[in-house]
Amino acid sequence: MTDPSTPPPKVPDASRRSERSRRAILDAALELVGESGFAKLTIEAIAARAGVGKQTIYRWWPSKAAVLFEACVPEGIDPASIELPDTGDIVADLKTVLRATVDDLNDARLDAPTRALTAETANDPELGRALTEKVLEPQLQAYVRRLRAAQEAGQVDPDIDLRIALELLVGPLFHRWQTRTLPLTHAYADTVVDLALRGMTPRPS
Amino acid sequence: MTDPSTPPPKVPDASRRSERSRRAILDAALELVGESGFAKLTIEAIAARAGVGKQTIYRWWPSKAAVLFEACVPEGIDPASIELPDTGDIVADLKTVLRATVDDLNDARLDAPTRALTAETANDPELGRALTEKVLEPQLQAYVRRLRAAQEAGQVDPDIDLRIALELLVGPLFHRWQTRTLPLTHAYADTVVDLALRGMTPRPS
Amino acid sequence: MTDPSTPPPKVPDASRRSERSRRAILDAALELVGESGFAKLTIEAIAARAGVGKQTIYRWWPSKAAVLFEACVPEGIDPASIELPDTGDIVADLKTVLRATVDDLNDARLDAPTRALTAETANDPELGRALTEKVLEPQLQAYVRRLRAAQEAGQVDPDIDLRIALELLVGPLFHRWQTRTLPLTHAYADTVVDLALRGMTPRPS
Amino acid sequence: MTDPSTPPPKVPDASRRSERSRRAILDAALELVGESGFAKLTIEAIAARAGVGKQTIYRWWPSKAAVLFEACVPEGIDPASIELPDTGDIVADLKTVLRATVDDLNDARLDAPTRALTAETANDPELGRALTEKVLEPQLQAYVRRLRAAQEAGQVDPDIDLRIALELLVGPLFHRWQTRTLPLTHAYADTVVDLALRGMTPRPS
DNA sequence: ACGTAATCGAGACGGTACGTCAGGTCTTTGT
DNA sequence: ACAAAGACCTGACGTACCGTCTCGATTACGT
Question: Protein footprint on strand F: which nucleotides are under 7 Å from a CB?
């Protein structure tokens, strides 16, 4: 028996949803956030640019952050499928990955929406949870898997907490990106990997 | 010779400023951000709570972020005066400091405004610059000074880039705080210090 | 030769029309206008109450006023069949009729929809025309016929313009109903008839 | 002791009201209702035409009907000051007045807003009351006063209920105007007066 | 001691965007 | 083929704040 005091929230029928409108909305959101930033992004502007009624946005998304989230993170990609390269050389592999991350963070097209979403998590915990679960954790877990392989290959001290090890790698990059204190470069990525890994080498027994 | 097309921006006379109003505004801003978060913080609400006209806020601050910034970071503290402890034991000293940082980040009173300001830097570069310059860099420079002392004492490899070394310490903490992936604990701070420092010990030549 | 630029207006096939739906719609409209008034009457609400798709209403009626009109004025009654009583005593007959009119206007069930339709004629001239032609004029013509009979019977001055005579009778009632200035009573109807008829008695030549 | 559950409705300070805005709003409302009718009259359109924020309308008027009401009925006219002419000849005086009324009702500038306001009273009883009290009743009372003078002068039967007598005069005009059945002319006004007054002449005792 | 000039509380103003609602059209899915 | 259902685009609603402006009423100097 359901609660009679709160009538059903009228969930719309997803099977009748217009894919044309959905795509137009997501594209418009990405365009607009690139042009003017998240603060000036409004639902009305998205609707106008997409040639869509506002209600069509409110029907399917709870906030402009949710729209942007879906625009940035296309659903349907399997989180478990994310895998770091494994050439057998943990240091080289991590440098490859962190250099790619640096390139992504320096990409102007990705920078604006990513910063916007990250910032919005401060006001919107629900968004934060979604972002962590759908995007961040899958990537971090890939790091953990790669580090575990290195551990098993004897390249990393077996006593190390891999979760913290990973944070030693990505934390510094994230910190520089977030604070804009100094530029993010490949050389920086390399140095972080070298320094972090030096502390993880197996101790001579 | 000044531009005649733009009349003087009417800088108000700071000497006549009402300290009562200033304090009331800052206090009201802090209260409100604690109660409802930054998103629901409005200039009108601050003015109403402080018993102040809106213009009194607009006269002295350019944005609600600037108000909050001043509320959180009382001016008049000398950035150069920030100093990390130096007992001679770099590991112990860093653990002391990072534990204190963990405590601060876990303090509910500081959490909301700090997150709000951090998030707002994504939309307000001017605020970001101020935060970096007045708050962040002074602290980071204190780390650099303490690490340099350790280097000179032979506890840290002289080849290490201290700026990056510092980021290996604070980056992980900042990352956890920002992403809320796992709890921030003293044990975590200790492990980060241990792991980071292991990579910085002088190499046996 | 038809205009090729305007395609046929797609007149639906009336023979396949669902009588069930038609009745449900008309009943729902009457119910709703009684419950909440014309202003809050919406096509959506009628459709929902009638268990009918909105399109089924739009297919057959041009506006909510048209629905209400058909609900109030069942088609198929012969306008010429309306007849005032004729006992030979014009004063008594008019009092009978105006008292009945007063009763109708005081009937709460009829009041709301009638007022709504009357008011809507200000915005919807088409509706006004329909109302006049189908409802109002047939009744007024009945008055004219009855007054003419009285004229021929020597009870009314032959020089009188009967159209205006009739308006002297119904105008005051309509005015009071519309303006709600004073209550509509049988006594009022009687006085109006007495007063109006006094001016119409054949002059002593 | 006042009700603590309902905070004061924040009545705005009338002394600071902008007369410029007020006039612009009333003018815009009159223009728009003349152009497109009351149904298509929107607060947004009024605000746009008047070059005014919507809130400035909502601050001072409860509905678009109230705006139109004030636009049509400039406040500050003393209801008691309305007086019908008194040349001593009641028939001639009434014809003068009703002819003027006919002219007003045929004036296109007054027609649209007057019809709109009249129609709106069906949905908005508060408006109806205001209209009756501020506009209608003062005029009707003037009729009553003039008829009473005629009564005292021996031109009207002392037994007549003057309130009903007045309705016999204005009711027919109102009815024709409202139903648009036949044109409103001076000749019509004259005939109504003649017919109605014939029934009011003093009976030969 | 007194003008006078600036700040102050207050809040009306022209605006922008909000999130909701209803209108009327179009499309999909039975029956 | 028509009816139900309901998603869609449109546009107005009434509200919340924005940042600017104007209004007396305090202040706090500089004569």
Answer: 1-23, 28-29
pTM: 0.87
In the numeric block, the tokens 């000497």 are attached to B15
- What tokens were used for C161? 């313009």
Residues on chain A touching B160 (C-beta within 8 angstroms): 195
Q: Closest approach of chain D CAs to the CA of C189, in angstroms?
A: 10
pLDDT of residue A36: 87
Of D117, D3, D14, D12, the C-alpha closest to D67 is D117
Instruction: Kindly state the average pLDDT of the residues D156-176.
Output: 96
Q: Decide if domain C15-72 falls under CATH 1.10.10.60.
A: yes
**D92 contacts: CB under 8 Å, gap ≥ 6:** none
Task: Tell me the C-alpha distance between B199 and A160, whole Å.
Answer: 13
Residue B8 has pLDDT above 60, yes or no: no
Residues D151/D162, Cβ–Cβ less than 8 Å: yes
Instruction: Decide if B32 contacts B22 (C-beta within 8 A).
Output: no
pLDDT band at C205 (very low <50, low <70, confident <90, very high): low
Residue D89 has pLDDT above 80, yes or no: yes
The residues, any chain, with a CB within 8 Å of residue A111's CB and separated by 6 or more, are: A105
pLDDT greater than 50 at residue A41: yes
List where CATH 1.10.10.60 sits in chain D: 14-72
Residue keyed to tokens 């004897």: A154
Tell me how far apart the alpha carbons of residues A132 and D21 are, in angstroms, rounded to a whole number.
52
- Judged by C1' against the alpha carbon of B44, the nearest nucleotide is F17
Cβ separation C122–D132 shorter than 8 A: no
Q: Specify the pLDDT at position A4.
A: 47
What distance in Å separates the CA atoms of residue A146 and residue A150, rounded to the nearest whole number?
Answer: 6
Residues D166, D103: Cα–Cα separation, whole Å: 19
How far apart CA A168 and CA B175 sit, in angstroms, is 10
Nearest to C59, CA basis, from C6, C27, C11: C11
Is any atom of strand E within 7 angstroms of residue A64's beta carbon? yes
Instruction: Specify whether the CB–CB gap between B98 and B193 falls below 8 A.
Output: yes
In which residue are the tokens 């009870």 written? Answer: C155
Cross-chain residue pair A195–B163, CB shorter than 8 Å: no
3-state SS, residue B32: helix
Domain with CATH 1.10.357.10 in chain B: 79-198
Residues of chain C with CATH 1.10.10.60: 15-72
Q: What is the pLDDT of residue D125?
A: 86
Are the C-beta atoms of B201 and B159 separated by less than 8 Å?
A: no
- Give the chain B residue nearest A140 (alpha carbons): B181
Written as six digits, the tokens of D67 are: 């705006």
Helix (H, G, I), strand (E, B) or coil at A85: coil
On whether the CB atoms of residues B27 and B113 are closer than 8 A, the answer is no
Residues 6+ apart with CB under 8 A from C53: C47
Band (pLDDT 50/70/90 cuts) for residue D26 is very high
Indicate the residue of A121, A132, A164 with minimum beta-carbon distance to B172: A164
pLDDT at B141: 95
Position D7 scores a pLDDT of 54
CATH class for domain C79-198?
A: mainly alpha
Give per-residue pLDDT as tens, B79-126.
Answer: 778 899 999 999 999 999 999 999 999 998 888 889 999 999 988 888
Cβ neighbours of B170 in A, within 8 Å: 171, 175
Pick the CATH number of B14-72 from 1.10.10.10, 1.10.10.60, 3.90.78.10, 3.40.50.2300: 1.10.10.60
Which of A 122-181 lie inside 8 A of B, CB atoms? 122-124, 128, 132, 136-137, 140, 160-161, 163-165, 167-168, 170-176, 178-181
pLDDT band at A13 (very low <50, low <70, confident <90, very high): confident
Where residue A39 falls (left for φ over 0; alpha for ψ -120 to 50; beta otherwise) is alpha
